[in-house]
Amino acid sequence: MESRSPVVTHLSWGRMEVEGLAPGKDFKLWPGGGRPWDWSETGTRHAPGIQPEDVQELLDQGSVIVVLSRGMDLRLQTSEEALQALEAAGVRVHVEETTAAVAVYNRLAEAGEPVGGLFHSTC
Questions:
Q1: From which residue to which does any coiled coil extend (predicted)?
Q2: Which domain does 61 fall in, by range?
Q3: Global pTM?
């Protein structure tokens, strides 16, 4: 049986708390775990936004539903290439403001769905 995706237990500007992980600012989450999301690993910036390499890790970890946050002020974009990679993988995608993204993600995680997500807790 696959592991459940960890639930986000707290979200405020610049701070997130996730089951089983140390508090942090931005996270990559997937079935069975997650880690801090370090934008510098893939060259992610607010524009053009989330990169294909950012979402690939979620797919590699077994996510079949992916939730992408746009930041609290909707400044984080998602690159067309990242969306194309998710479409090619056949996953369902939700793109929302961070508070809404966490709500969608938590609902799916609590239902036992194999959901992954990228969460940006500031702008």
A1: none
A2: 8-120
A3: 0.96
What is the residue-averaged pLDDT of the chain? Answer: 97
In a domain, 78, yes or no: yes
CATH number of the domain at 17, please.
Answer: 3.40.1230.10
CB contact at 8 A, 7 and 67:
no
Residue of 18, 22, 23 whose CA lies nearest to 5: 18
**The length of the chain, given as a count of residues:** 123
Tokens linked to 59 = 């797919």
pLDDT reported for residue 55: 97
Using CA atoms, how far residue 75 sits from 45, 47, 66, in Å, is: 10, 8, 19
Q: What pLDDT was estimated at residue 1?
A: 41
112 phi and psi, to 5 degrees?
85, 10
Note the pLDDT tens digit of each residue in 10-54: 999 999 999 999 999 999 999 999 999 999 999 999 999 999 999
d(CA 98, CA 103): 9
